[in-house]
Amino acid sequence: MELLHLVDPNPLCWSSLLYSMPAAHSANVLYQKPCHTPKLRRFGVQSSKRSSDPLSFGLQKDTKKDLSRILRTEAAIIGIENKVNSRKYKQLWPKAVLEALHEAINEIRWEAALKIFALLRKQLWYEPRCQTYTKLLMMLGKCRKPEEASLLFEVMLSEGLKPTVDVYTALVSAYAQSGLLHKAFDLVEDMKSVTNCKPDIYTYSILLNSCTKHSRFDLIERILAEMSYLGIENNNVIYNTIIDGYGKAGMFEQMEYSLTNMLEIGNCQPDVFTLNSLLGAYGNSGQIEKMEKWYEEFQLMGIKPDIKTFNIMIRSYGKAGLYDKMKTVMDFMEKRLFSPTIVTYNTIIEVFGKAGEIEKMDRYFKKIKHLGVKPNSRTFCSLVNAYSKAGCMEKVDSIMRHVENSDVVLDTPFFNCVISAYGRAGDLNKMGDLFLSMRERKCEPDSITFACMIQAYNRHGMTEAAQKLENMMITAKDSFGTKLIRG
Predict the structure, then answer these.
(1) Chain centroid to CA 206: how far?
(2) PROSITE patterns under this entry (predicted)?
(3) Distance between CA 114 and CA 139 in Å, rounded?
(4) Distance separating alpha carbons of residues 271 and 278, to the nearest angstrom
(5) Residues 240-282 pLDDT 10s
């Protein structure tokens, strides 16, 4: 994996060292307080050369709209990031640094955010704030970076800050979202012994959400009992979290039991989120009659559907092959002045694509363009998957040209999709070019990327190339922890 251009190894900055060191050593670099050294050491990297092969599809190009977005985010982030390496930038304009940090956090770019935060800590006007740490910890939780979150928490303590409930809850979230539930529970216990830092309903909602996502339903009753003991009343968010979790796990009896409790408790009532959870659970499992029954029940309760409700029903009818009912929902939306979104059209395109109904899929893709609805990465993924499955690789090429001339933001799932398509078709040159384009676009390869390419190389007897990729995947896994396994 390419290392980031870097930096003075002494201050709290997240440099290439974090990528090349084992976790224990990177922790030492992270924990050091801001200081200055007389001589800066820089680490440079050479990027992979761009392929001159026309089969690269020009994916490295940026459209004018891309450039506009870059001027708003990249220039702000990179412009500040480039100053991290220098000792002289100790009196930067506060607004520039803080805005760059805000953009990096919003864009969920944790490496850049922590580099900018390192620069922020060097400023003469810097004052530690719990709010800043809370935002950074929440971002690291979303990126599933529990070790980095833990180190950042230690840095905050070293600055003399007393953690607030929000800070503790953000760290709980970082542990819980990564599946480290035992650490999350231990931290909640610690919170109880800290003055004015007792866990609140938001803390417990995060724990419940993570328990359902990691199939630890055995812990739910424990959390609810603890909340009751502390005098924390359940609300809609708590019940909806539990109902949604049971529904996605196919635990329909527990889901309906939780709904009954919600109705009986009195202080909170089902809402459209509850409706969508039940419809999604039954619809996704193919229990169309129960889905329709609960839709009617919620109508009688006076709970009105939203656009997500209709998208769920369209997907459910589509999976069941009930295309007439799918169209009925679309017609109903039109009469009730619900405008279909790109999510709606993506659902329909995906349904027809998986069913091999290429003509119907193409018809809706043309409709999107006619209506001026902007397709996204998922739209193109569905199209490429369908064309690849049908053996229409010339249409995949056409999609790639369409992508080149659009301002769609490409992501790792998109590249995985096209890499897999060309790999299955035996076009290993295009597959390799796309891998390079992926890296240049800063889309991180994941386990799916490597698996698709390794499989393609092995299928064509290129065992040496497959072995090299496998070694690269192992190295990347060691350096980046779980980053490459999330797929």
Answers:
(1) 17
(2) PPR
(3) 10
(4) 11
(5) 999 999 999 999 999 999 999 998 877 788 999 999 999 999 9
